[in-house]
Design goal:
The complex is a heterodimer of chains A (766) and B (154). Chain A has 766 residues and is α+β, with helices and mostly antiparallel strands. Chain A is 28% helix and 24% strand. Chain A is globular. Chain B is globular and about 50 Å long. Classes of the chains: A alpha+beta (766), B alpha+beta (154). Chains A and B meet through helix 1 and helix 17 of A and helix 2, helix 3, helix 4 and helix 5 of B.
């Protein structure tokens, strides 16, 4: 093992002092002089024709500066499918549809005015079940949307997700055991503690500055530029300034209607306009994780070798289409490549309904698919009479493998993860007693080296060193609390030989920061880290070249440590870093010590068959859990939780554990308690009393285990870890519940009611 | 219809004119520009707006500002001393990785303070109970619990 100074150290987050003292500025804290407050009127119906909007009374209210509707705004369309206008005209398609918006001099007036807008609707038949929505004659959500071979009006999106490898039908015939089940997963919310918001501001030249909490500054910039074009402001500039982000988890991978509404209001009033969501809005007007109906079959040979995996999935798209509609492409990853399975078929349909539209959320489809796959692995193992631990080990992925989706598995610590979880749970001793206590495990694969979802998977870094030896790292990366700036500082410090505290990371302004595709796919440590390391190498070379001249030594004999450049051969030849920089800057014909580096990993876009090496490396992990199930109440209590992950290398174990703890906790909520309840399209629990995320009293102690496989392509060997923590949580818990009481729950969340009902059914069957 | 309220804020007497419908959170954030106290839900459910009123935690987002009259209020801004030195709880939160996005942090720190002021050696169960009203989506709470344990010398 290499001797690192900064890598592998539990270094506190660089922004921690600001946050712990309340000095950190989030969007709600931001005030711009002259700022107005925006407010949005939403639809009271799931599906209706807009007959008339009367805004006159609202306009007359003193303090109101502008009122907008879909009838007096330019035709902006946003979202992955460009099917979503910020303000709806003619028709509303869900309860979250924005019908009107206004800006006023204070939030109270805005609130009062929004209630003065009168809208008349003609209610239309609505549809909330994606399977019903696919049927002939179902109400059409977007009448103009055509699909299928005949190009007929349909609710099924033209996104034919289809991955075929090998011959599933033949493999099925030849399987000794086949399991076939239907699993269902529902909506869950990100629950960022800071609600959504932005401030939009135009300058005198009609250039836009957006104060935003986006996870995708470079892509959001493009979205806003497209909006400006639709507004007749071609050629204008957009600057995105990130405030501190009060939680991301994928919720900020798209741009939302409220942002365009703020832009429209700011343009109309020529004043900065701020929109901040209430918690209720956050629950019903932002986009949750996709619900899915998952029909799955898997088979194996007599001795438990997997033969095929066959999955048909129906996803409730909701009324509009975000990037989240592409989650089936990520679901292909576990479907094709979690455990060795030679024959794979996966077909998914995204269907318009009058429900809220869904979006990216930590894991991006992977938790949904893995719940079905790894729950059913236990079912299949039982059919084959094999301990599920042995079944998993028998089919575990291995380094050097090429999976049916053409993923090239590089380093792979899955076997080690499974082994260590079994050991910590004392699996062979404990499992299979059916005495109310049960043990379960599940595994995961996720991209570990970024993912080529867009054309580029790149990130740029600029490093300059000032007169006093401070290293300014200007990165495209986004820190939303996960600690990107700290990890980047550690990587730069390690590479250059400077101290972490001498590194300043800037990542908040598109006018300054290089391009980056965004904080998604657990890619920041890997991609931004490699980018930062590349820039650090270059800037160090420059620095040593400059120092070589003043010290009379060749550059390769020089190194840096503790703010000193020194000769490795002659201890007399040394100079403080700052002094060398000053000499360079003040000399005639001097130069700036500064470097840039753009890193784009050798990841492949999926081809037409949805195959290709999406990521240069993959992250594996296994979670193990011991539960106690109360047969009287159906309550599930987690007694022990083990999370083992192949992390490549832990750059900062403390921050890494934070990602796993947070991910697993979110995953436990997904498994047991969380559900956004929609009744006829309306969110019935838009508050923290009725939406049950875990509190400090609910979370079990979680033991994390880091398997370091030192990936050759990772920065100092690291792989991504942002999402993996919640991917295998739900199936591990479902498997443990089965082991405890012998009931298999195939629908999330696994509430006490479902457990009780299943127990009752089981008793009745006996 | 404005009324004047007088209270001790972070050790200093303040006098503010407020509309009677305002919450303590609105007065702190909008009138006094102490934006360290956060609004996470506006319904007293998430604890991001926690401040100490006469040493006890209150959800300032549903606490009528008028009722602060004559009382002592501590916000996160009052926890560091005059020289900018961090409170031991703040130091422990930093050191144990108890902070990610940081939005829940000011409220969480103040709940921890109220807990430790009352009970210098809380059990893990008591710590979990003490911060159960403060939601955190990032950390899974475990490093927060560790930090509070560490401050109490455990």
């Amino acid at each position: 093992m290499q001797d690192f100074i900064n890598i592998g150290k539990r270094i506190p987050k660089m922004d921690a002092e600001e946050k712990v003292t309340g000095k950190a500025v989030y969007i709600p804290d931001l005030k711009v002089p002259g700022m107005l407050y925006g407010k949005i009127l939403y639809s009271p119906h799931a599906h209706a024709r807009i007959l008339r909007i009367d805004t006159s009374e609202a306009e007359r209210l003193p303090g109101v500066r502008a009122v907008l509707t879909g009838y007096n705004t330019p035709p902006i369309k946003f979202g992955f499918y460009k099917d979503n206008p910020p303000l709806k005209a003619n028709k509303v398609r869900s309860f979250r549809d924005e019908v009107a918006a206004l800006a006023a001099i204070d939030p109270d007036i805005a609130e009062e005015a929004i209630n003065l807008i009168r809208v008349e609707y003609e209610i239309l038949p609505a549809i909330f079940d994606p399977e019903e929505a696919m049927k002939e004659g179902a109400p059409l959500i977007h009448e103009e949307h055509l699909g299928g071979k005949e190009k007929k009006p349909t609710n099924v999106l033209n996104l034919p997700w289809r991955l075929i490898a090998g011959d599933v039908d033949e493999a099925r015939k030849n399987s000794a055991y086949v399991a076939e089940d239907r699993f269902k997963v529902t909506w869950v919310a990100h629950c960022c503690l800071g609600t959504s918001g932005c401030v939009a501001q135009f300058d005198m030249k009609s250039n836009l500055t957006m104060y935003s909490n986006t996870q995708i500054p470079s892509l959001a910039q493009k979205d806003y530029l497209d909006a400006l074009s639709a507004m007749g402001l071609q050629g204008k500039k957009v600057r995105v300034i990130k405030a501190m982000i009060g939680g991301g988890f994928g919720s900020k991978l798209d741009t939302y209607a409220y942002e365009y509404i703020a832009i429209l209001l700011a343009h109309k009033t020529r004043k900065p306009v701020k929109i901040i969501f209430t918690r209720e809005e956050e629950f019903f007007a932002t986009s949750p994780r996709q619900p899915a109906i998952i029909d799955i079959a898997q088979g194996c040979t007599k001795d438990g070798k997997m033969t095929f995996r066959d999955i048909r999935m129906t996803l409730d798209n909701g009324a509009y289409t975000s990037w989240g509609a592409t989650t089936p492409s990520v679901m292909m990853m576990p479907i094709s490549s979690l455990y060795k399975v030679p024959n794979v078929r996966y077909v998914a349909k995204c269907v318009y309904t009058n429900n809220t539209y869904s979006q990216a959320m930590r894991g991006y489809g992977n938790p949904q698919a893995t719940f079905a796959i790894d729950s059913q692995i236990d079912i299949l193992a039982e059919m084959a009479g094999i301990d599920p631990l042995d079944f998993r080990l028998r089919n575990a992925n291995t380094p050097g493998e090429v999976t049916p989706q053409n993923f090239k598995i590089n380093t792979c610590g899955l076997r080690e993860c499974i082994d260590v979880v079994a050991q910590r749970l004392d699996w062979r001793q404990n499992r299979g007693r059916r005495d109310g206590r049960g043990f379960g495990m599940a595994s995961m694969i996720h991209v570990g080296g970024g993912a080529r979802v867009y054309k580029s998977d790149g990130c740029g870094t600029i490093i300059k060193i000032d007169d006093f030896g401070t290293v300014n790292v200007i990165t495209g990366a986004t820190d939303m609390g996960q600690g990107a700036e700290t990890v980047i500082a550690q990587i730069v410090a390690e590479e250059m030989g400077v101290r972490v505290e001498d590194v300043v990371v800037t990542h908040t302004d598109t006018d300054i920061c290089p391009w980056d595709v965004g904080a998604h796919a657990s890619r920041t440590t890997f991609v931004a880290g490699n980018s930062a390391r590349g820039a650090a190498k270059k800037v160090k070379e420059q620095l040593l070249e400059v120092a070589a001249k003043s010290l009379g030594e060749s550059p390769e004999n020089l190194d840096i440590r503790d703010r000193i450049v020194f000769s490795k051969n002659d201890p007399e030849k040394k100079s403080p870093l700052g002094k060398i920089l000053r000499a360079t800057h003040y000399a005639a014909g001097g130069k700036m010590v500064m470097a840039e580096y753009f890193y784009d990993p050798p990841n492949e876009n999926l081809d037409k068959e949805f195959k290709g090496n999406l990521s240069v490396t993959y992250a594996y992990g296994t979670h193990g859990v011991e539960v106690e199930v109360d047969k009287e109440t159906g309550q599930v209590k987690i007694l022990k939780y083990i999370a083992a992950h192949d992390v490549g290398r832990a750059i900062n174990p403390m921050l890494l554990e934070g990602q796993v703890y947070g991910g697993a906790t979110m995953g436990i909520g997904y498994a047991l308690t969380e559900r956004l309840i929609l009744q006829n399209g309306k969110v019935m629990n838009p508050n923290f009393l009725d939406y049950k995320m875990l509190t400090a009293k609910d979370v079990p102690n979680i033991e994390t285990i880091e398997i370091e496989t030192d990936d050759p392509s990772g920065p100092f060997g690291a792989k991504g870890i942002g999402e993996p923590g919640l991917v295998p949580t739900a199936p591990a818990i479902a498997n443990a519940i089965y082991d405890a009481v012998g009931v298999r729950i195939k629908e999330l969340p696994i509430t006490p009611e479902k457990v009780l009902a299943a127990l009752k059914e089981k008793t009745n069957l006996k | 219809m404005k009324q004047t309220i007088n209270f001790i804020l972070n050790g200093e007497p303040v006098s503010v004119e407020v509309e009677p419908h305002l919450t303590l959170l609105q007065v702190l954030r909008d009138k006094l520009e102490l934006t360290g106290t956060k609004e996470g839900c506006g319904m007293g459910e998430c604890g991001a707006c926690t401040v100490l009123l006469n040493g006890k935690t209150v959800n300032s987002c549903i606490f009528p500002a008028l009722e602060a009259d004559g009382k002592s209020v501590m916000t996160i801004e009052g926890l560091t001393d005059g020289q900018g030195h961090l409170h031991p709880i703040q130091k422990a939160f930093i050191e144990y990785g108890a902070i990610q996005c940081g939005f829940c942090t000011p409220g969480m720190v103040l709940s921890a303070k109220a807990l430790l002021d009352e009970n210098t050696k809380p059990t893990e169960e008591e710590i979990r109970h003490g911060i159960a009203g403060n939601l955190c989506r990032c950390t899974g709470y475990l490093q927060i619990i560790e930090a509070i344990k560490a401050v109490s010398g455990q």
